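Problem: given the chain below (228 residues), write out its structure.
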Amino acid sequence: MRKLYVIILTVFTIYSCKKENHKIEPKIKKENYNPTEYFSFPTNIKNWKKYAEIVINDSLKKVSGEFEDYIIEGYIDNNGQKIGWWNIVNRKNDQADNARIEYRIIDKKEFVNQYISYNLKDGNDTINSLFYLRKKLRKPNTLRYKFYTPNKKIKINMSGKFFISYFSNNKKLKTEDLKCFKKNNYYYVDIDFPTQGTIIVKGLFEEGYEYDSGEMGVNDMYILDTLK
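Solution.
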């Protein structure tokens, strides 16, 4: 996401200079910001050109516009909050870094739950992304969840956990706290889900880690899936 990062950095710098009466601020590093803060500038419709919107229903609009060299599309709810999957695509260079971002509303606030860095030539850059996948296994009623977390900077003392609850007809069936296993640049865990009709899965994946410097951090993702 280097080029996208440079563009965001430039906007941050210009904005900071105006706010601080042309006082020069130190360079903004991506690692100093959580994903919600980092993506707040390119997805802020006030920074766009050629803004357009389509009303989907009473509570949802699809919006689009241009930010520097990027075309951005996404959704906002009736409170003006970003929700669902957004796409940031460079309209001039198919080798440039792009991003798909999932917004969720947590405690009435916008939250970037997943983000996938990619370019149109090489596909997904899983080293610089935070997202999950699921697939059915051959064993009946068994799913494997894979959780990808950013790994560009070397981590030590890593661990992954998956806190999951199963619901059917608005009733909680069971809750599990599962240990995830690390493989390459992702964690995985297999679950045996109940078979009582349509199952709603609500969960939270959490990765704890430490850098060589002693700095510690956490990556997390909320999970909401429907299983049939």
